[in-house]
Write a structure and sequence with these properties.
Strand 1 and strand 2 form a beta hairpin. The strands form four sheets. A five-stranded mixed β-sheet has the order 3-2-1-4-8, sandwiched between helices. Strands 11-10-9-12-13 form a five-stranded mixed β-sheet. A four-stranded antiparallel β-sheet has the order 14-15-17-16, covered by helices on one side. Among the domains are: about 80 residues, ATPase, nucleotide binding domain (Nucleotidyltransferase, domain 5), CATH 3.30.420; about 140 residues, Nucleotidyltransferase, domain 5, CATH 3.30.420; about 110 residues, Alpha-Beta Plaits (2-Layer Sandwich). By secondary structure, the chain is an alpha+beta fold. The protein is built from twelve helices and 17 strands. Helix 1 runs parallel beside helix 3 and helix 4 crosses helix 5.
Length: about 500
């Protein structure tokens, strides 16, 4: 029976369920914290099966573009230029052809999409790669939603689902083709019913503003939820000439996907995870580096099956040959016995010439092998701290406040890193002199410092910077602050390079 692992990732939470056929063997929840990722790493130590990662994130962007219809290397080059134009900062990107136009040059209508905040995904993927998990692919909820609207005759349909960890997901389809999707994060105390009533009108106006919904066109709204929640929504949603509602009970979909939904709420996580397990879309956000160990897993399975076929074929051939031979070749058998006897005699002679010891030769060999392995895996502090000291000498404005390091086996292995070598994780806390006078120059100076560390074979990631410039940051004028922010924290991962 097939074993596999299903993962559902939201902004600050990862749900995991280990499957045996259509039954859940184990189910775990992990928070987006250092402890949560350590727990996830411990959980993966017992996992040796294909893994599917499904994301439900607000940071997913969609763009509709019409491009010339090409093939081969020309098409790949054109798509790469589009990716560089739209999504340069993330590796999680894909392009799906929706249709070819019926007239003119018959250009291709393409849907470009990407997970635009790789920082939410990469740490989890790195843990999986460090444990050599066969990751089949990285998918998103909008990608696998199409089968849930396939039976609708509507050409303009809005699918509404709920994820108790992520929020309200609204996905728009035109002629059963995905056009756009948006996620409204759940807030404290917000229910599924409240979110639908509050967001549906806004989404309708949003579709109109993008000209995705033609003027005067009726919008069909399919809402998936628990029967009790759907009954309440039928009474709370306003009657509208612009929208027509289609309420789909969660229990009906559960039976269609052949699993028992015992959750008792409108959380559609199980619907999407089971849908992903049944049939994966052709396109996905994972690239070859993410699915490397799955490719090796498939190759290993193929070789295993080929070896079984070879053994069976050899047995059949041997059985057939035994029937074809009336009498055995006595001369050949005698020659083999004679050579075997001579080999045994030579072996005993060599063993007698070896010096006598109280330790068996095999134990000596094992000890030498273990010592050699320990020597290759170990690293002295001078090896991974000396390059850091050399870089800091070249950046006098960097003031070190605190330094710590530890060994770790859960860090991702770079392309030029040695497999089986324990990583050294160095955390440095410091501050920049004169950071308050010019934040742009301070951030540029810190970036140059990071790049210099990377040239010394460190993997560098910023935990804290003097100024938060991410989309979640709040930019304020700090020039008159009593204690201007100038501190930073960097995480450095070091391994010997090949």
């Amino acid at each position: 029976m097939k074993k596999y692992l299903l993962l559902m990732l939201s902004t600050d939470h990862l749900h995991a369920q280990h499957m045996l056929g259509d039954k859940i063997v184990d189910e775990r929840e992990f928070s987006d914290t250092a402890d949560g990722k350590d727990d996830f790493a411990d959980f993966l130590r017992t996992i040796h099966c294909p893994t599917y990662l499904l994301t439900d994130l607000i940071e997913e962007d969609f763009r509709l573009e019409t491009i010339p219809y090409l093939s081969g290397s020309s098409q790949r080059a054109l798509l790469q230029r589009k990716f560089d134009q739209f999504y340069r900062g993330t590796p999680y990107q894909q392009a799906t052809m929706l249709q070819r136009q019926a007239t003119g040059r018959r250009d291709a209508d393409m849907l470009f999409s990407a997970l635009t905040n790789p920082g939410l995904i990469t740490p989890w993927v790195d843990v999986m790669l460090a444990h050599q998990i066969p990751l089949v692919g990285i998918y998103s909820v909008p990608q696998i939603s199409t089968p849930l609207v396939a039976d609708s005759p509507s050409n303009h349909l809005l699918l509404i689902t709920w994820n108790k960890y992520a929020g309200l997901r609204e996905t728009y389809f035109s002629s059963h083709r995905l056009q756009i999707s948006r996620l409204t994060p759940c807030s404290q105390g917000l229910t599924f019913q409240d979110a639908v009533v509050g967001e549906l009108g806004r989404t309708y106006q949003y579709l109109k503003s993008l000209s995705l919904l033609p003027a005067g066109q009726l919008l069909d709204v399919r809402i998936i939820g628990n029967s009790n929640d759907l009954i309440e929504l039928q009474t709370r949603l306003p009657r509208s000439e612009d929208m027509r509602y289609d309420f789909v009970d969660m229990a009906t979909l559960s039976k269609k996907l052949k699993f028992a939904n015992v959750r008792g709420d409108s959380d559609a996580n199980q619907i999407f995870l089971r849908q992903l397990a049944v049939k994966q879309p052709k396109s996905q956000y994972g690239n070859a580096s993410h699915t490397h160990f799955y490719s090796l897993w498939r190759l290993r399975i193929g070789l295993y099956l080929a070896s079984i076929a070879l053994v069976i074929g050899s047995i059949l051939w041997a059985v057939q040959a035994s029937y074809l031979q009336d009498t055995p070749d006595q001369a050949a058998i005698a020659s083999i016995k004679q050579r075997t006897s001579k080999i045994k005699s030579d072996t005993q002679t060599i063993l007698q010439l070896l010096p006598k010891t109280s330790v068996a030769p095999q134990e000596i060999k094992s000890a030498i092998t273990a010592l050699h392995s320990l020597h290759e895996r170990s690293s002295t502090p001078q090896e991974f701290l000396a390059p850091l000291s050399m870089v800091m000498d070249k950046f006098p404005k960097i003031q070190l406040d605190e330094l710590a390091w530890k060994s770790s086996n859960t860090e991702a292995i770079p392309q030029n890193g040695q497999v089986g070598i324990t990583a050294q994780v160095i955390t440095i806390k410091g501050h920049l002199d004169d950071a308050a006078t010019n934040y742009r120059a301070a951030l540029s100076y810190l970036d140059q410092f990071q790049k210099a560390l990377e040239l010394k074979s460190y993997q560098v990631s910023a935990i804290d910077k003097p100024l938060d410039i991410t989309p979640k940051g709040s930019l304020t004028d700090l020039r008159n602050a009593a204690q201007p922010v100038s501190g930073f924290t960097l995480k450095l991962v070091w391994r010997p390079v090949l």
